[in-house]
Amino acid sequence: MRAAVVTGPGEIRIEEYSLPEPGVGEVRIRLEGCGVCASNLTPWSGPDWMTFPTAPGDLGHEGWGFVDAVGEGVTTLSVGDRVAALSYKSYATHDIAAADAVVPLPPELAGQPFPGEPLGCAMNIFRRSEIVAGQTVAIIGIGFLGAILTRLASNAGARVIAISRRPFSLGVARRMGATETIPMEDHNGIIERVKELTGGAFCDRVVEAVGKQWPLDLAGELTRERGKLIVAGYHQDGARQVNMWLWNWRGIDVINAHERDPRIYIQGIREAVDAVASGALDPSSLYTHRFPLERLDDALNATRDRPDGFLKALVTYE
């Protein structure tokens, strides 16, 4: 198999390895591709805690492909099954996954890329947000996750206000069902605009999907009394401060919508499979950039730099 190894900050090499053999309760997957996650960017930059070189395929966790070997005791999967997997060395042509961390893909999804982990993450965040018809929902940050949540909230009958930095992202939000879009430029201007749009009440739900201090500050300001602030952004670059006076005064509920239980991850992926297969969710236009494995460094740099028209990168394998 071929696998990417991160050899230092912003540096990779592609190497060949013997195929790994699945153990008891595991399967081997011949991967078609893997999505590129923004959570990779901090280790990619080479922080003090990062160790190089990485294990082969490391950092990749959004893979899909075909089962090509089955370990002892596996009865739910067969060689040839097309699947999405929750595995963690998927910047490679093959990866090993526990059989209970693999979700079969139905015929309706044949030929379509399916980075299961981020799609499942969106479904889990949406479930925990408790968004229903008639609510006003602000989504701060329209990347891949924010765009999916915009569609899910719109499908549920909510009025969605999308707030994002790039005009391209705001256009995506409108296509995904946002009623209103606001450029993320001026803190007080955004607050006043949302106040105007909601008759002074602000929003029933606010989803922060950026992972930075300012969007978190803004999210608190936009959440109505007894509303819910959902932290969906991945805050991996240090401590945060919050305006606890405001949070107390408004009595808001704050939901950290990150999961760590693999069973819940898999539940979200199964829900995403159903949503995409049924046509309720179509993420295809959100996969804006594709790279071969040999250009994983370009895929990671594009995810960091977000050139015009960029939303989500996929690394695909021949």
Low-confidence runs (pLDDT<50, min 5 residues)?
none
Strand composition percent: 25-35%
Bin the helical content: 25-40%
- What structural class results from the helix and strand content? alpha/beta
Q: Using only CA atoms, what is the Rg?
A: 20 Å
Query: Can you count the helices?
Result: 9
How much is the average pLDDT? 97
**What does the overall shape look like?**
globular
Distance between the termini: 12 Å
Following the backbone from N to C, one meets helices and strands in this order, namely EEEHEEEEHEHEHEHEHEHEHEHE
Beta-strand segment tally: 15
Main sheet overview? 7 strands, mixed
Topology:
Blueprint: E1 2-8, E2 11-16, E3 26-35, H1 41-45, E4 63-70, E5 82-85, E6 94-98, E7 102-104, H2 116-129, E8 136-140, H3 144-155, E9 159-164, H4 167-175, E10 180-183, H5 187-197, E11 203-208, H6 213-222, E12 223-231, H7 244-250, E13 253-256, H8 262-278, E14 289-292, H9 296-305, E15 313-316
Parallel strand pairs: 8-9, 8-11, 9-10, 11-12, 12-13, 14-15
Antiparallel strand pairs: 1-2, 3-4, 3-6, 3-15, 4-5, 5-7
Helix pairs in contact: 2-3, 2-8, 5-6
